[in-house]
Design goal:
single chain, alpha/beta, Spermidine Synthase, Chain: A, domain 2, Rossmann fold, 5-stranded antiparallel β-sheet, 9 helices, 28% helix, 32% strand, binds S-adenosylmethionine
Length: 274
């Protein structure tokens, strides 16, 4: 019997029983593709679970839709990271979107996802999508005032994604957005990764005039409690609660969740305000 444990902190982890495992080594990280009994196929980078067939819809819906719904007319969208393709798939559900750029540093993540995770990566070959295999930090240097929405679909702030959780990077994101542009970022687990969470949210707040953090329940992420942060200079996200989501065919996001998206448990808002 094979079991895999992701060590989420020094003292706790997520353990799953595995039917079959494949290991790849890229220039940037170790890639594991595990076929698990409970969660279906699971993508693991340097020991950290990135996505699974069973619960991926929650993360991808919740990263993509609030930002796209809050924007009046999102046409040009950039996803940084996200080589599994799940966020791109959700972005393409918005009919106003004309152009989607995906900037993923690791070509092998894209290749492994295309081969083994077709339900997640299936829209990466869509005609509206262009894939760039580049470091997101450098990519933004050449693209100013261009995007309506930028989604940061990054791995944890260690390794290749470390610089992309810092103030200097959020400033680049802001410069690459049009005036009414919106950023949404995954900002880690407030429960088990309090320092990562707090730092990311505070750095975002230091750069953008408006920001709002929200949560989703994601079983395979640390503590099952995950955070996202929306940010913009010219959008206060107040129209979000009235948006119609019936055409998005979501499985997690509902009208009621959207209505109370920014209702945070008290300990979570205390961390941000501390
Ligand atoms: N849902 C995930 C999570 O929160 O664990 C994120 C998934 S996605 C697979 C993360 C991707 O970000 C990885 O494929 C990784 O290669 C990519 N990445 C890390 N650093 C990057 C960088 N500097 N530029 C572009 N992509 C980067």
């Amino acid at each position: 019997m094979i079991w895999f444990t992701e060590y989420q902190t020094k003292n706790t982890g997520l353990t799953v029983r595995v039917k079959e495992s494949r290991r790849f080594q890229s220039e940037f990280q170790e890639i594991l593709l595990l076929d698990t009994y409970e969660y279906g196929k699971m993508l693991v980078l340097d020991g950290a679970v990135q996505t699974t067939e069973r619960d991926e819809f929650i993360y991808h819906e919740m990263l993509a839709h609030p930002a796209l719904l809050a924007h009046q007319n999102p046409k040009r969208v950039l996803v940084i990271g996200g080589g599994d393709g799940g966020t791109v798939r959700e972005v393409l559900k918005h009919s106003t979107v004309e152009e989607v750029h995906l900037c993923e540093i690791d070509k092998m993540v894209i290749e492994v996802s295309k081969e083994y995770l077709p339900t997640i990566s299936g829209k990466l070959n869509d005609g509206k999508v262009t894939v760039f295999v580049e470091d997101g930090n450098k990519f933004l240097d050449e693209r100013k005032n261009y995007y309506d929405v930028i989604l940061l679909d990054l791995s944890d702030p260690v390794g290749p994604a470390e610089a992309l959780f810092k103030r200097n990077f959020y400033q680049k994101v802001k410069a690459s957005l049009r005036e009414d542009g919106i950023m949404a970022a995954q900002t880690e687990s407030p429960f088990l990764q309090e320092e990562y969470f707090k730092t990311a949210v505070q750095e975002i707040k230091a750069v953008f005039k408006n920001s709002q953090t929200y949560l989703a329940f994601i079983p395979t992420y640390p503590a099952g409690m995950w955070s996202f942060t929306l940010a913009s200079d010219n959008n206060d996200f107040s129209t979000l609660k009235d948006k119609n989501i019936s055409n998005l065919n979501t499985k997690y996001l509902s009208d009621k969740i959207l209505n109370s998206l920014f209702a945070l448990p008290k300990f979570v808002s205390d961390i941000i305000e501390k």
